[in-house]
User: What shape does this take?
Amino acid sequence: MRKLRIAFLGLLISTSLWADVVALRDDIPARYVVVKGDTLWDISNMFLETPWLWPDIWHLNPQIENPHLIYPGDVLGLVTVGGETKITTITRTEKVTPAETTGPVKLTPKVRVSPIFGAISAIPRDQIAGFLTDNRIVSEDELKNSPYILGGEEGRIVIGAGDKIYARGDFGDEPLPAYEVFRPGAPYYDPETKEFLGYEARSLGMAEFIGMSGSVATLQVQRSLENIRLQDRLMTTEQDAVVGTYLPSAPDLNTRGFILSVLRGVSSIGQFDVVLLNLGERDDIEAGNIFHIWRRGALIDDPVAKEIVRLPSEKAGVLMVFKTFNKLSYGLVLDARKPMKIGDEVRSPGSGS
Assistant: This one.
């Protein structure tokens, strides 16, 4: 059932990610009543050809309490604001509270209604959590200064959940209750400028801190995703707040980058693969940013000019950024219409060809 729901989500997303400008759909509903289970993405998809641009057309109604949120029971429709068409909350079901009075009260039928479900979100994290990753990007100094695993109990060199491990390194004056275990991966460089961007650290599990004896720390592995080995690293679990809901949005019009790797460790890329981009927070990239993936054109031999020619790139897929670092970010491929691979370009949806 979970795979079916995710597949449906991917189908829903893929139907509308290929247009490049804010445009209303032809079959716009005059009004729509929000129901439980809706998301902003679903609703925007009813009105717009480009649902990730919903903030550009959403009109906040100031006379409605908390106009930034919508709830089941709200009635949505279109209004004209400054000559532009906008989506807005036309009416909201509010709880009716009788006015205070000291005299006789005439009883008349009234409907008492109030939002009983939470506010509507865009793409809930739990819908795609199974495809995301806990890997992170670290600098050379972060990697060098992180504690490392010396070995396991009774000389074990391959360690799993429930095993004790021994580690050395800088745990600070007050060690944390737990540490994440990572394995240092490949260094990444910008394919155009050759700038060093960082190391990928692969998440292996979690270890509880037990105590220190001299310079050696003892920990116990609470959870392991794969075997833990000597020289794997321990890093703090302190991170930015986890994004609970992704609001699809378009990055700056001129933003472009490249796919550096795919999480599965192969060169081919398909739907729901996690990819690493050479774009990050310094490029104003945010979780929820949508990119089109452009498959690089093949090299062919021109028999007339006697030279090698590269064919034009083709739009091949769509991804959404879900985790950002200073110089790199992770994205989830939401739609794959043609085969893609490492080295393909990503562009803002509004950039065109």
About this structure: Residues 271 and 336 are 5 Å apart (CA to CA). Helices lie at 2-14, 40-47, 54-57, 125-128, 140-145.
